[in-house]
Amino acid sequence: MAAAHTRARPHPRPVAIVGTALSDTGRVDGATPYALHAQAARRALADSGLDRSVVDGFGSAGLGTLAPVEVAEYLGLKPTWVDSTGVGGATWEVMAAHAVDAIATGHANAVLLVYGSTARADIKAGRRTSNLSFGGRGPLQFEVPYGHTLISKYAMAARRHMHQYGTTVEQLAEIAVQARANAATNPDAMFRDPITVDDVLSGPMIADPFTKLHCCIRSDGGCAVLLAAEEYVRDTAKDPVWVLGSGMAVSHTTMSEWDDFTVSPAAVSGRRAFERAGVRPSDIDLAEIYDAFTYMTLVTLEDLGFCEKGEGGAFVEKGRLLREGALPVNTDGGGLSACHPGMRGLFLVVEAVRQLRGEAGAGQVRRPDGSLPELAVASGTGGWFCSSGTLILGRG
C-alpha cells in the first residue's frame, strides 16, 4: 500500500477513505431506504477489503426517528462513536470532517458513513408528497406564510447574481449541458442523452430564471464511505485516498439574515479546507460540487476560489467543466443528470475517490500528462446556501 500523502498531515494519526460504494441508483422501485443503506454498506466494506468488525464508528442522517441508531441496528452494528449531523446537503462533508477528527484523536478507528433514499419511488407510489417548506416554526415562520419555497430562494439568489454581475441565463444553462455531457460516460447516471443550451432555455419554467433542466433530478439511491486510521491501510484492498483538509460553515436560515445573496458559506468552508490541506485551488485536478441547481455550481466555484467573485459566468463557458476541460466538475453528471435522491453530499465523496483511484472507466479524468488526478475537492451545500462542508482529498 502507498504511504500517507505528503502534502499535509494535519493530524498525528492520518485518516484515509478506504472504501466507497453506491447502492442501486436511479429508478429503484423494489427497495426500502433501509435496504439501500445495507446494500451500500456491504459494497463499501467489500471495496475496502476490511472486515465489518473493525467498524466502531457510524454516521447516518435523514432516516428513522433515532438516526443513526435505527440504521446501525438494521445493519447489525453496535458503534461506540456515532454522528447524526443534519445540515442538509452539506451533512456528509461535515460528518466526514467529524469522523476524521474522531479517528485522529483515537475516539474511533474506522467510521462508516451511509445514506440511502427512495425519494423518487415514494412520490411515484404516493407515499410522499411535495411541501412548501421544512416547517413553519421558529425563524421560518416569517417566510412560510408567503409561499417562499426552497427553489424560489435559489432562484432569487441567482437573479441577484445576474443583476449584480451580468451573469446570463445562457451561462447557467452551460452548467447543465456540461453536467449532462459528463453523465454520458457514466453507466450509473439516470439521464445520459445530450442536451443543448436551447434545450435548457426552452424547458418549462419552474422558478424564474430556472427552467426544468436548471434543476436537479429526483432519483432513488444510496452510497457509503468508510474512513479508517492509517494503520488499517496496509490491510485494505485498494490504495487509500487521504483526507488532507476540511472546513465547515453555516450562514442563515431566513433570507433576511443572508448578508449577500451572491456569497455562499463555501467561501468560509473552502478557505479553511485549503489552508488546512496546505494546497491552493490551482492545485486541484477535479471538483465535485453540490448542484441542486445550476447557480449552486457557479457560485460555489467562485467561493472556493477557482475564479473571482462575479466571474463565474464566464468561467463555466467553453467546456471548462467537462471531464476533459480545464477544471472537470461533477464528473459523474452530478445531481443535474446522474442522481439526486436527497442529501447528495456523500455521492460527491464517492465520485471524487473513484476518480482519484482511476476507477471511472470511460469517464476517467486525466491530467495533461496522462497521469491520474492527485487532488480533488468535494464541497456540499445544505438548505438554501444555509450550510457548507468542504473536503480536500489526495491520492496516496
Describe the 3D structure.
It is built from 12 helices and 11 strands. The chain has helices at 33-48, 69-75, 91-104, 119-124, 150-165, 169-183, 197-201, 266-277, 294-303, 312-315, 334-337, 345-357; strands at residues 15-22, 57-59, 81-83, 110-117, 205-207, 210-211, 221-229, 241-250, 286-289, 375-382, 387-395. The protein is globular and about 55 Å long.
Furnish the topology, listing elements before pairings.
Blueprint: E1 15-22, H1 33-48, E2 57-59, H2 69-75, E3 81-83, H3 91-104, E4 110-117, H4 119-124, H5 150-165, H6 169-183, H7 197-201, E5 205-207, E6 210-211, E7 221-229, E8 241-250, H8 266-277, E9 286-289, H9 294-303, H10 312-315, H11 334-337, H12 345-357, E10 375-382, E11 387-395
Parallel strand pairs: 2-3, 2-4, 9-10
Antiparallel strand pairs: 1-7, 1-8, 4-7, 5-6, 8-11, 10-11
Helix pairs in contact: 6-9
Q: What's the N-to-C terminus distance?
A: 9 Å
Q: How large is the radius of gyration?
A: 20 Å
Mean pLDDT: 94
> Which strand order spans the largest sheet, edge to edge or round the barrel?
3-2-4-7-1-8-11-10-9
| Regions with little confidence, pLDDT below 50 for 5+ residues | 1-7
Number of strand elements: 11
Q: SSE string, helix = H, strand = E? A: EHEHEHEHHHHEEEEHEHHHHEE
**Sheet having the most strands:** 9 strands, mixed
Q: Based on helices, strands and strand pairing, what is the structural class?
A: alpha/beta
Which assembly state applies to the chains in this document?
single chain
- DSSP helical segment count: 12
Beta-strand residue percentage: 15-25%
Helix content: 25-40%
- Anisotropy-based shape: globular
